[in-house]
């Protein structure tokens, strides 16, 4: 909690994203937290130590990306020998983009890869030194459908015939408990459906459904068993059918509906599909980049896991195929695209990249919000939602104090 001796910073001449609205107000932070100005003025009888003129801009919580495989030449599944460098530099680069917290994502891998990389992908605080906060890993696969594997190596895929024991053999349950935020599974894979409640109880991780060919009945049972999110909606899943809508159909269910990640890079999902999803379940939308190692770098050849990826003009394909291998978009770009695709308000688009991901992960008491007591992870945006200034833990992040080392230039 802030100390009375900590300096107080005021953001003024701005519209603040709070209470599902943009309100003309000031925002105060102290000791790395958003604070109540009444306490500052009346209880402590003091004025702000620092005043920041936002020049009529928007003050938003920092963006949260719950699915990103890498950036700046680094890949969280492939760079096992350089995993600390990968986390450090991706975290710093994302911070400068306005993404103040994220879930580093691993694609389907061998058990030895999980045991190597997961201890480095667990939660860590954000700062100008660390970069964006790490919220825990998103472990995508390998308990997924071979028919909807996308950019996952077929040889790495597994079943859970022995239930929880197979998850332990693959990841190590303690690894998940300590270092993962959530896992993505396909509920029709042998043993997975029955194991979902046990996995949640044993590790405390969230469970998302994705890379699946499951029917509506199976995904409904998986959701009832505790799977609370859909991974990159529309991509790598049973296509919508009027008599069996599959995983997409959960957005129209009568009961509680899941959160869903959606990639708004203009490549992975048609704008009409984005609009349909959002109108069906606006409170569940979580914008994700699903970015891979080429994000923020030129066209060329990169890696995702052990596979080569060709990147040209914002399109990333597994070499020699037409299979998408993640995106190269930033979350700020996805926010702006979402408004173009759906006609949604700025508030709705911003909450899809802030509040909703935090709610999905159960951390909305401190992330994704500017309510009093939340972490002072703050963006100043212009009228077009371009990031102008970034603060993490109350400290401004700039290229002068946040240094990013790209791993390598792409091989053409």
Automatic annotation (TrEMBL):
It catalyses: N-acetyl-D-glucosamine 6-phosphate + H2O = D-glucosamine 6-phosphate + acetate. One of its GO terms (molecular function) is metal ion binding. It is an enzyme of class 3 (hydrolase). CDD domains: NagA. Its EC number is 3.5.1.25. Binds 1 divalent metal cation per subunit. Zn(2+) binds at residues 140, 211, 232. Its cofactor is a divalent metal cation. The active site is at residue 290. Residues 58-394 form the Amidohydrolase-related domain. One of its GO terms (biological process) is N-acetylglucosamine catabolic process. The keyword Metal-binding applies. Belongs to the metallo-dependent hydrolases superfamily. NagA family. This is N-acetylglucosamine-6-phosphate deacetylase.
């Amino acid at each position: 909690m802030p100390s009375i001796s900590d300096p107080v910073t005021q953001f003024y001449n701005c519209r603040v994203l709070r209470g599902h609205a943009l309100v003309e107000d000031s925002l105060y932070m102290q000791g790395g937290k958003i604070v109540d100005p009444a306490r500052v003025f009346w209880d402590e009888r003091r004025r702000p130590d620092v005043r920041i003129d936002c020049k009529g801009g928007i003050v938003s919580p920092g963006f949260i990306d719950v699915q990103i495989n890498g950036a700046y030449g680094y890949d969280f599944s492939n760079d096992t020998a350089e995993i600390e460098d990968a986390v450090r530099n991706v975290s710093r680069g994302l911070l400068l983009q306005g993404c103040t917290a994220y879930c580093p994502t691993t694609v389907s891998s061998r058990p030895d890869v999980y045991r190597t990389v997961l201890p480095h992908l667990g939660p860590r605080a954000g700062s100008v030194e660390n970069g964006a906060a790490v919220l825990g890993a998103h472990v995508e696969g390998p308990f997924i459908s071979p028919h909807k594997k996308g950019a996952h190596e077929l040889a790495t895929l597994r079943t859970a015939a022995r239930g929880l024991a197979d998850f332990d053999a693959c990841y190590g349950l303690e690894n998940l408990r300590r270092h993962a935020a959530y896992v993505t599974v396909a509920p029709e894979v042998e043993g997975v459906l029955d194991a979902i409640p046990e996995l949640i109880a044993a590790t405390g991780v969230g469970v998302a459904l994705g890379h699946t060919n499951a029917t509506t009945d199976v995904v409904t049972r998986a959701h009832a068993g505790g799977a609370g999110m859909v991974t990159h909606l529309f991509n790598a899943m049973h296509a919508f059918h009027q008599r069996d809508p599959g995983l997409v159909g959960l957005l129209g269910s009568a009961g509680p509906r899941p959160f869903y990640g959606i990639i708004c890079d203009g490549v992975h999902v048609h704008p009409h599909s984005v609009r349909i999803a959002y109108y069906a379940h606006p409170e569940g939308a979580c914008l994700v980049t699903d970015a891979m190692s080429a994000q923020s770098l030129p066209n060329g050849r990169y890696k995702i896991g052990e596979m080569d990826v060709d990147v040209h003009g914002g399109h990333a394909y597994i070499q020699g195929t037409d299979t998408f291998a993640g995106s190269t978009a930033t979350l700020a770009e996805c926010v702006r695209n979402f408004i173009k695709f759906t006609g949604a308000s700025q508030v709705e688009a911003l909450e899809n990249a802030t509040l909703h991901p935090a709610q999905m992960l159960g951390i909305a008491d401190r992330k994704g919000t500017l309510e009093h007591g939340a972490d002072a992870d703050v963006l100043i945006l212009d009228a077009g939602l371009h990031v102008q200034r970034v603060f993490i833990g109350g400290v401004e992040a700039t290229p002068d104090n946040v240094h990013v080392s790209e791993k390598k230039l792409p091989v053409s």
